[in-house]
Amino acid sequence: MKLNERSLAFYATCDSPADNAGFLYKRGERHTAYHRRWFVLKGNMLFYFEERESREPVGVIVLEGCTVELCDSAEEFAFAIRFGGAKSRTYVLAAESQAAMESWVKSLSRASFDYMRLVVRELEKQLEEMRWGTAGGCGGHRGWPGSWKPKSSGPEQSPERLPALPAVLPKENGCAVWNNTLGADRLPDISGCGGADSEGNPRPPPVPPRRRASSSEAGSTGVAAVESPSTFCQLHERYGREVTQLRQDWLER
Question: What's CA 211's distance to the chain center, in Å?
Answer without folding.
Answer: 56
